[in-house]
């Protein structure tokens, strides 16, 4: 998610392909270095949906369709 | 006699000058401003960009949240997210273990409340600023803001709440509006239950209202 633009595709690839996984890891780290939070939307067995916050690439389930990066939360109007 | 009249005239003219000249100058300035050639708006600005961004954001939100939550947002303009902490939104919350929930509005504080009683607990003011552009950062589209709060609450409620500025209810969101929204939510849920029960009775599909 990019302020003023909405959803922007950053990278895509298959984690089973070494080169593509490396590119995904690099992009993941780059986004976290920029101060973004990463979340993986998930659906449990009951159909309930929730997000899983990923603090490192290892936190991302191998079968995840996508990781959404969004700006880090900060306190709003005081 | 003539001398006195002349002096009086000079004084009157001087006083009038003080009053009239600024007004005349202002009128000329206004006329110049009206006739000035206005340059075209910011080059490269696309007025449809934000609308398209919001459209994409709505699709993304829809693909992430539950069907009920999406319908809630589409119909009511906010999403209810249930709290998961045993002691309430914060360590010293006064919920005494009662279930609590949040109302998530776009670009407004998250409002925590007790569904059983409708009591408003607190407002959590949270934003998602673009840290690469600390000055004049653009906002997330409305639906992205809601999705970011939803992901924060369902993924790491404690961290999102800790990042927010907590205020008593009414600081930014009018409590009357929140109570009205809670009433609208109850009505909306009753209507959905009614449709579901009709669908079950008929064993088929019932058109949405």
Protein model, in words:
The complex is a heterodimer of chains A (78) and B (209). With 78 residues, chain A is an alpha+beta fold. Chain A has a domain at 18-71. Helix content of chain A is 21%, strand content 26%. Chain A is globular. The two termini of chain A are 25 Å apart. The mean pLDDT of chain A is 90. The termini of chain B are far apart. In chain B, strand 3 (110-113) and strand 4 (120-127) form a beta hairpin. Chain B is built from five helices and five strands, in the order H-H-H-E-E-E-E-H-E-H. A five-stranded antiparallel beta sheet of chain B has the order 1-2-3-4-5. With 209 residues, chain B is α+β, with helices and mostly antiparallel strands. Chain B has helices at residues 2-35, 49-64, 67-76, 142-163, 175-202; strands at residues 79-82, 101-104, 110-113, 120-127, 165-167. In chain B, helix 2 (49-64) crosses helix 4 (142-163). Chain B has two domains: 1-39; 49-202, no CATH class. Classes of the chains: A alpha+beta (78), B alpha+beta (209).
Please give a quick description of this structure:
The complex is a heterodimer of chains A (78) and B (209). By secondary structure, chain A is an alpha+beta fold. Chain A has one helix and four strands.
* Strand composition percent of chain B: 5-15%
Percentage of β-strand residues of chain A: 25-35%
Helix and strand content put the structural class of chain B at alpha+beta
Low-confidence stretches of chain B: none
Mean pLDDT of chain B: 86
Class inferred from helices and paired strands of chain A: alpha+beta
Radius of gyration of chain B: 29 Å
The main β sheet of chain B shows up as: 5 strands, antiparallel
Radius of gyration of chain A: 14 Å
Number of domains of chain B: 2
Instruction: Write down how many β-strands of chain B occur, each being a DSSP E stretch of 2 or more residues.
Output: 5
Query: Largest interface by residue count?
Result: A-B, 29 and 44 residues
Strand order of the largest sheet of chain A: 2-1-3
- Helices of chain B, by number, come to 5
The number of helical segments of chain A is: 1
Q: In which order are the strands of the major sheet of chain B placed?
A: 1-2-3-4-5
Mean pLDDT reading of chain A: 90
Low-pLDDT runs of chain A: none
């Amino acid at each position: 998610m990019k302020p003023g633009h909405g959803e922007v595709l950053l990278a895509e690839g298959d984690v089973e392909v070494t080169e593509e996984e490396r590119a995904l890891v690099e992009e993941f780290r780059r986004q976290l270095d920029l101060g973004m939070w990463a979340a993986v939307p998930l659906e449990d067995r009951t159909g309930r949906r929730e997000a899983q916050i990923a603090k490192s690439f290892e936190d991302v389930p191998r079968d995840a369709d996508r990781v959404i990066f969004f700006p880090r939360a900060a306190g709003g109007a005081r | 006699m003539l001398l006195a009249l002349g002096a009086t005239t000079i004084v009157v003219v001087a006083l009038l000058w003080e009053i009239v000249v600024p007004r005349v100058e202002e009128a000329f300035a206004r006329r110049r401003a009206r006739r000035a050639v206005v340059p075209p708006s910011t080059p490269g600005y696309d007025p449809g960009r934000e609308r398209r961004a919001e459209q994409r954001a709505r699709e993304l939100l829809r693909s992430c949240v539950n069907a009920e939550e999406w319908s809630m947002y589409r119909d009511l303009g906010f999403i209810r997210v249930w709290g998961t902490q045993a002691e309430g939104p914060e360590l010293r919350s006064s919920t005494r273990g009662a279930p609590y929930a949040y109302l998530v509005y776009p670009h407004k504080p998250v409002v925590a409340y007790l569904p059983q009683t409708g009591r408003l607990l607190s407002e959590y003011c949270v934003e998602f600023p673009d840290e690469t552009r600390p000055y004049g950062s653009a906002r997330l589209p409305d639906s992205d803001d809601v999705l970011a709060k939803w992901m924060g609450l369902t993924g790491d409620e404690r961290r999102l709440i800790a990042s927010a500025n907590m205020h008593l209810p009414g600081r930014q969101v009018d409590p009357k509006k929140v109570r009205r929204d809670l009433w609208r939510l109850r009505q909306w849920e009753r209507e959905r239950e009614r449709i579901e029960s009709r669908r079950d009775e008929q064993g088929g599909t019932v058109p949405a209202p």
